[in-house]
Design goal:
Strand 13 and strand 14 form a beta hairpin. The chain has 2 domains: 245 residues, Nucleoside phosphorylase/phosphoribosyltransferase catalytic domain (Pyrimidine Nucleoside Phosphorylase, Chain A, domain 2, 3-Layer(aba) Sandwich), CATH 3.40.1030.10; 89 residues, Aldehyde Oxidoreductase, domain 3, CATH 3.90.1170.30. Helix 4 crosses helix 10 and helix 12 packs across helix 13. It has a 5-stranded mixed sheet with strand order 1-4-5-13-14, with helices on both faces. It has a 4-stranded antiparallel sheet with strand order 6-9-11-7, with helices on both faces. The protein is of the alpha+beta class and 449 residues long. The protein is built from 17 helices and 14 strands. Helix content is 45%, strand content 16%.
Length: 449
């Protein structure tokens, strides 16, 4: 039982009135809630007060630390080397973890990766991994450490022991309209990542129609908050701001994205996916002290793909976690969706804009995502894009191919996809895919090369 030191109502009033809470007061609130000494309605009131009045950097760090220490902080000292993970704020077609994790591990940097499931328009890494027959993401902490030590890589879901306060508070934020708070988002992300046992972290903070943060300024603020918390806890942290105005790559949907990831690891794959993959992987390799600079890390990342060591590491981890390596070696043998239909262009011109959020919702409609946490996903469902922003297109040319096992969804999904692609006569300027790098020294314009 928590030793009561503070009056909960007084603390709620204090934050309601816009005053700063001390670290001890925040720790009390989180610990007491985790120990069931504070009811949901009181912590909900605190969350709303924090949402409306904000939390400063000291309060955000205290919140993170309280959630971090609500459970086990994993000790990975048995695995030699500097442990580095990557976290993305999520987007449509974001399969980067599946590609960069084996690349970085193949370069000698241990990658302890704990991921989440998809909800709404964004896909989840765990759902993608589970589309591989037999692949298990639910392991004990002992098994988590064992896999990492053996393979230099582990790809699993959050266990009950890691940041349990975050799990409970996130569920409350979801139903109380307090999700879109930068310090609450940052505390949630960083408490889980720090609990994994990492030494350094690379963040991919996305902005645009298909991202959680639509606005570049808000996304930059989130990146700065995340980096600040990571550095405060003694973990080297670097973030990149990346564009999610259109889906990443061509494939959206669980197995379809795994298949595209396999292409990438075999030296193919879309250019937009590989540009960000090599940047994030190169930064991880640098932070893991296997390269003297990010640029050298990027070169090592490219080499790991070119010499086949990254794909071999992918096969190793699939086998280690119970997955079928034969279907990974022969992805065309995977059972296809029963209904596969093309979406055609209604006019000739150039693709000038895409509504990535609407496209993500099309994938949900087809069965690739979930509206509620309890929903099942269809691993074969999703779509393949044949055109991206800036591409020329002719009338009646295929712009996307839809995959589903639910025929009843196709009419709405085809219309939704057609509406999400804007075609006009003028070729649009090509926007930057990577806008900023954020580190402990501030925000820097990203210039490739």
């Amino acid at each position: 039982m928590t030793q009561k030191k503070f009056n909960t109502v007084s603390l709620i009033r204090k934050k309601r009135d816009g005053r700063e809470l001390t670290s001890e007061e925040i720790q009390y609130l989180i610990r007491a809630y985790t120990d069931d000494e504070i009811p949901d309605y009181q912590i909900s009131s605190f969350l709303m007060a924090a949402f409306l009045n904000g939390l400063n950097d000291t309060e955000a760090a205290a919140l993170t630390e309280s959630m971090l220490h609500s459970g086990i902080v994993v000790d990975l000292s048995e695995t030699p080397g500097k442990k580095v993970d990557k976290h993305s704020t999520g987007g449509v077609g974001d399969k980067l973890s599946l590609i960069l994790a084996p690349i970085v591990a193949a370069c000698g940097v241990p990658v302890p990766m704990i991921s989440g499931r998809g909800l709404g328009h964004t896909g989840g890494t765990l759902d993608k991994l589970e589309s591989i027959p037999g692949f298990t993401v639910d392991v004990t902490l002992d098994r988590y450490k064992e896999i990492l030590k053996k393979q230099n890589l582990v790809l699993v879901g959050q266990t009950e022991e890691i940041a349990p306060a975050d799990k409970r508070i996130y569920a409350l934020r979801d139903v109380t309209g307090t999700v879109e708070s930068i310090p609450l988002i940052a505390g949630s992300i960083m408490s889980k990542k720090l609990a994994e046992g990492i030494d350094a972290l690379v963040l991919d903070v996305k902005y645009g129609s298909g991202a959680f943060m639509k606005d570049k300024e808000q996304a930059t603020k989130l990146a700065q908050t995340l980096v600040g918390i990571g550095e405060k806890f003694g973990k080297q942290t670097i973030a990149y701001l990346t564009n999610m105005e259109q889906p990443l790559g061509n494939a959206v949907g669980n197995w379809l994205e795994v298949k595209e990831s396999i292409d990438c690891l075999n030296g193919g794959g879309p250019e937009d996916v590989m540009e960000i993959t090599h940047l994030l992987a190169g930064t991880m390799i640098y932070l893991g002290e296997k390269a003297d600079s990010i640029e050298e890390g990027i070169e090592k990342s490219r080499t790991a793909v070119d010499d086949g060591s990254a794909f071999q590491k992918w096969l190793d981890i699939v086998e280690e976690q119970g997955g079928d390596t034969e279907v990974v070696k022969n992805p065309d043998s995977y059972p296809k969706a029963e209904f596969i239909e093309e979406v055609k262009s209604q006019k000739t011109g150039f693709v000038t804009k895409m509504d990535a959020y609407a496209m993500g919702m099309v994938s949900v409609e087809l069965g690739a995502g979930r509206r509620a946490k309890e929903d099942d996903v269809d691993p074969a469902a999703g779509f393949i894009l044949h055109k991206k922003i800036g591409d020329s297109v002719k009338e009646n040319e295929t712009i996307a191919t839809l995959h589903t096992n639910n025929k009843g969804t196709l009419t709405d999904a085809k219309q939704g996809m057609a509406d999400a692609v804007i075609i006009s006569d003028m070729k649009p300027p090509v926007g930057k895919q990577i806008a900023y790098k954020v580190d402990k020294n501030g925000v820097h314009n990203y210039n490739k090369g």
